[in-house]
Write a structure and sequence with these properties.
The structure holds two protein chains of two kinds.
Chain A lengths: L1 H20 L8 H29 L3 H4 L6 H5 L9 H7 L8 H5 L7 H20 L12 H8 L3 H5 L9 H7 L17 H6 L1
Helix pairs in contact in A: 1-2
Chain B lengths: L2 H21 L4 H32 L5
Helix pairs in contact in B: 1-2
The chains are: A mainly alpha, B mainly alpha.
Chain lengths: 200, 64
């Protein structure tokens, strides 16, 4: 896809150079207007949108998240041989798209969720390059149960599991988000990191 | 060659090159900078071209 887009760009730049270098004369021939319409109007709009859409799809991939060295341990944790960490379990069982595993879990399931995820990417840039990456990386805000329940909520296993029915209104609390899925003693390991394993 | 066509062409070429660089960028910083710069330059080039078209239409009395 990148090669196609690059080739199309080269073709258009060639036409623009042709437009600039050709001696069109003092009048404005129809041909020059047609070339201008295509090279300066129609093509840039569609090609530019195509590139932006392609680029925005690239930023959803695990490989893109892994390009910052502070994320190396988190990306490696997807392949850890352990059934407890949520990231490893979901990734290795293909419960989330493996190519976009990070994006699948760390994007809010709302109308502007994906837009906010992209904007959060800009925040990551600011924190990493200007503020300085913190020693301990934490989410900017609490991980909402909604992100778990969009898949697990309708599941019979979720509703019938003994651990979710220890108290009378436990299920309601989970659904309302007042009791976090990631509470201590529950699903409290998101990523299994080498530094945390040493503490054990 | 009207000056504005040269400006539109220059902005267009610069934006195209920047967006092509975003396709092969290695780090998120390179990606963000090339994509943002490229988009702004390309959009500016299109805007300048569109302005020329509108001005020519006005000169020919198409909006009167």
């Amino acid at each position: 896809m990148e090669i196609t887009l690059a080739l199309l760009a080269v073709i258009n730049i060639s036409f623009i150079v042709f437009l600039l270098l050709k001696e069109w004369g003092s009048s404005t021939p129809r041909a020059r207007k047609f070339v201008s319409l295509f090279t300066l109007g129609v093509f840039p709009i569609f090609w530019g949108l195509g590139v932006v859409v392609h680029d925005l799809k690239q930023v959803q991939k695990v490989s893109f998240c892994g390009k910052c060295h502070v994320m190396t341990d988190y990306v490696n944790s997807l392949n850890v041989d352990d059934t407890e960490p949520l990231s490893a379990v979901h990734y290795q069982n293909n419960w989330v798209p493996q190519e976009k595993a990070c994006y699948a879990c760390h994007t809010h399931y709302t109308m502007f969720g994906s837009t906010n995820a992209k904007l959060r990417g800009l925040t990551h840039l600011y924190v990493y390059y200007i503020k300085g990456a913190p020693e301990k990386i934490e989410l900017y805000e609490k991980y909402e149960n909604r992100e778990c329940l969009r898949c697990h909520g309708p599941a019979r296993k979720f509703a019938e599991t003994k651990a979710h029915n220890l108290e009378n209104d436990m299920l309601e609390q989970i659904r309302a988000g007042t009791r976090s899925c990631l509470s201590d003693g529950c699903h409290d390991v998101g990523h299994s990191l080498p530094s945390e394993e040493e503490d054990w | 060659m009207p000056r504005l066509i040269k400006l539109a062409a220059t902005l267009n070429i610069a934006g195209t090159i920047s967006l092509v660089l975003s396709l092969i960028s290695n780090t998120p910083l390179q990606f963000s900078l090339t994509m943002t710069t490229g988009f702004i330059l390309l959009a500016s080039g299109v805007a300048v071209w569109l302005w020329m078209v509108v001005m020519e239409a006005v000169k020919k009395g198409m909006f009167s």
